Each structure stands twice: as C-alpha cells, then as structure tokens.
Amino acid sequence: MKAYVAVTDNDWYQFLSQRPDRDEVNFWQPGGKQLFRALKPGELFLFKLHSPNNVIAGGGLFAHSTLLPVSMAWEAFGEKNGAATLLEMRRQIEHYRRSRSDPHQDYTIGCIVLEEPFFFDKANRIPVPEDFPSNIPGKGYDLQTEPGSSLLKQLEWALRSQGKDKVFMHEKPPMYGKPITVLPRLGQGSFRVLVTDIYQRRCAVTGEKALPVIEAAHIQPVSQGGIHRIDNGLLLRSDVHTLFDRGYVTVTPDHRFNVSRRLKDDFDNGEHYYQFKGKQIWLPPRTEDRPNREFLEWHADAVFLG
User: Fold this and answer.
1) DSSP SS3 for 159
2) How many domains does the chain have?
3) 40-44 long-range CB contacts below 8 Å, 24 or more apart?
4) Does residue 169 form part of some domain?
5) Are residues 48 and 130 in the same domain?
6) Sign of the four-CA dihedral 101, 104, 110, 115
C-alpha cells in the first residue's frame, strides 16, 4: 500500500475542514496538463499544509484522476471543490496559474477525486517525513518501508484519536499491522466523473461528445434504492437522460436501446429517438464497468412505459 503527501492550498483546506458534509472532495491541480498516476484506487492521499506549517493535516482515499473544464468540476462537486462559489474557486486556481486567465475561459484543471476525506485537529496533525523536499508539490511513500511505515503508525494513531480508524483498515486490524487497500465508496460527484471517463466522454446511445450536454445517469436512482456504482450508470445526452428517467426509453438487459410507443402517443413526435431503437449501445471496454443486468431489469419493470 502507498500514500502520497501533497502540498495543499490553505484556503481549500480551511474551507473543507469546517464542512460537515464532506463525503468526497476534489483536490484540484491548477495546471490541468497531466493526470495524477501515483496511486491506485483505495490508497491514501494526504494533505500537507504550506510552510511554515510542515504537517500532514488530513487526507482521503484516492478514487480517480481526470482532467476537466473548471465549470464541469464545479458542476460535479460544487463546494466540495473547496470554495463557496465557482468565482471563488477560479480565484484560488488562478493564484497558481502562470498565465493570466480570461474570466470567460473555461480552462482545464486536474482533478484528484478523494472519498472519505478526514481532517485532523491541530493536536493530531503529523510532522511530514524528514525526507520531504521543500520544492516539490508532493511525494509518494511505500507504507511497508521507512519512512513510510513510521508515517503509517502515526496515521493510525491520529485516525483512531478522531474515531476514523475504519477509513482504510478492516474493522479489527492488528495494531500497526499490514494495511489493506479498500476500494472507496463513491459519492455523487465521483460517480458523475467516473461514468463520464469510463464511457470515454460520449453518449452510449447517440455517440454525442459535447461535454456540456452529456450526463451520468443512474439506472436505478438513489431515491429509489440505487447506489453510486459504475455498473449502475450510463452516460447519456441530456435529452436522452430525461427520457430515460421518465420511462420513455430504456436499455434492455442485452444492452440494446428501446423506445416506448408512448413517446409518439403522448407527444406525436419522437422520430429522432426511434431511429436508435434496437441499436446496441456503446459499452465500456471492461466487463465490470458495463451496466448491471439486475439494474437494467429493474428499470424495464419499474420505469419503462413499454
């Protein structure tokens, strides 16, 4: 298991540390030119405050890394970007960008999506390892060897002190025992971003690639017992998403698009959507990311107006 210690914007940290609903956060990177690849999902991403506060003040479980227009990052995570408004978020980001930004420019930023974030009280903050350089944005550590193993012990103690010991360990881990990576449970924003990337940023039905009009849809909505799981998601153009949620279209268990006759009966229209009827939708390469048959059957039975 690995951990990554990243220098953290103080305003971002202070804002999020005071929020009660921090089930997920977006740790943004202002440059937006390359993906963060230092961790695997479920490994620890830790917040180091700026000098002279050379301490680790919290962290979270790494879930995903992506590059997004700043507006889409705001739509996905809102205040969980570490700011009260999009304007304030842009102000924070542009403080670090080397080029002057047009206020109307929807520039790209790096997004490191973290689940189950934790923020230490001042008494529980951990000194950074002695080998942490002063001139880099972050450094990775193997938690099985020094100085990573000592860092792990300090993390375990700090998490237990704040009742957060289950963040990255099983329910009854041996004290200072071998860490076990646990895949993080996704939040709403993470679900949106992961589904968008897993479907390679195109509508599974129409092939549309314009990011502003494609949306991550739940097959079984959270309000009706669904959860934020990749196999409970589809990436759809916004109009197709609306029709899917209202039952005028569905995806069959064998991954074909179906359109209800009610679409024409109710609106005397729908020719554009009927042209896709029976079409095999585009599917993610990995089988485990594809729509779950159980969820599709639920949608056909409970929502579709067939």
Assistant:
1) helix
2) 2
3) 40/2, 40/181, 41/183, 41/184, 42/168, 42/181, 42/182, 42/183, 42/184, 43/1, 43/2, 43/3, 43/4, 43/181, 44/1, 44/2, 44/3, 44/4, 44/143, 44/155, 44/168
4) no
5) yes
6) positive
**3-state secondary structure at position 249:** strand
126 with 38, same domain: the answer is yes
203 and 154 together in one domain? no
Residue type for 34, please?
A: Q
Q: What share of the chain is helix, strand, coil (3-state, %, to 5)?
A: 30, 25, 45
Domain with 236, as residue range(s), is 199-302
Residue that finishes a domain, picked among 135, 161, 187:
161
Residue pair 132/139 in contact (Cβ under 8 Å)? The answer is: yes
CB 83 within 8 Å of CB 89? yes
pLDDT digits (tens, 9 = 90+) for 228-286: 999 999 999 999 999 999 999 999 999 999 999 999 999 998 899 999 999 999 999 99
**CA–CA separation, 188 and 48 (whole Å):** 26
Amino acid identity at 56: I
Q: How far apart are CA 150 and CA 133, in angstroms?
A: 18
Q: What is the CATH number of the domain that holds 146?
A: 2.30.130.30
